[in-house]
Amino acid sequence: MTTGDIGLWGVPIAVIGGAIRVSTPILFVSLGETLTERSGRINLGLEGTLVIGAMTGYATAVLTGSAWAGVLVAALAGAVFGLVHGLVCSLPKVNDIAIGIAMMLLGTGLAFYFGKPFIQPVAPNLPAIPLGWWSDLPQVQAALNVNVLFLIGLALAFAMHWMLRATRPGLIVRVVGDSSDAARAMGLKPAQIRTIATAIGGAFAGVGGAYLSLYYPGSWNEAISSGQGLMAVALVIFARWNPIACIWAALLFGGAGALGPALQSVGVTQGYYLFYAAPYVLTLGVLIATSSPSRAMAGAPGELSITK
User: Fold this and answer.
1) What is the CATH number of the domain that holds 284?
2) Residue 271: pLDDT above 70?
3) Is 2 part of a structural domain of the chain?
4) Which contiguous run of DSSP H or E holds residue 128?
5) CA–CA distance, 86 with 84 (Å, rounded to integer)
6) Fewer CB atoms < 10 Å away: N or C end of the chain?
7) What does the pLDDT look like over 69-103, one tens digit per residue?
8) Domains identified in the chain, total number
9) What share of the chain is helix, strand, coil (3-state, %, to 5)?
10) Structural domain range at position 18
């Protein structure tokens, strides 16, 4: 290719590149929620965990000058939120969904309060791999810059799939998620295992938040998550609690989110903004399509509160 007007060919290229960029935080959050739900607990607080991860990751990167230090601190903050959620939900007569909403409000509130000093400072960005090197078009090169965290997310999805199917820890998680009574008969402690799974899931969501603030869009502000933590819960149901299916579902949601900017990038000036609502419309469509109890819960862990 030579430099020139990319034209309509830019739409699929921009959508593909945008799908990868937009899907990365959704992928991490959905993987974390998949692990949590496979253990028999639902965590609606991941929206707050995503935001607190974005804030702590950005603040750490500003203070240390290292984006990877920001990712690590974001994962730690997410794990702490997941741990608190898991411990509270382990108490008698506590509802997972109610606690999740409370943790979502707590996370967003803390992030907004402590993150105000970091709205203006500029943090270093996470590195990306330039897969558009073969083109002279700057639009193609920009669209095909793939962040390292996306590749890490792909590897984690396959590793989690293998872990759940072929390892003793995976069997333990599945047993606890399907039947607390069977888990206790095996000498397991369901509350502890669910708390650990929720903490690990929170760490994943924290990494997703760090991606938002340290790469795309690459800044910290109070509206950075745009509901992606809640979208991930619907995505996990859509993916039938399968980590590999989460990859394709996240890319689908990411592609929907990238459609509006892609049309704008090729000169469509009327109506493109309507496509910015595509991810929310898709989420609503997924929820409606899976609203039948027999379809929505097919393959769901038996101990999930939404199945009872």
Assistant:
1) 1.10.3470
2) no
3) no
4) strand 128-130
5) 5
6) C
7) 999 999 999 999 999 999 999 998 888 989 999 99
8) 1
9) 70, 0, 25
10) 7-129+136-307
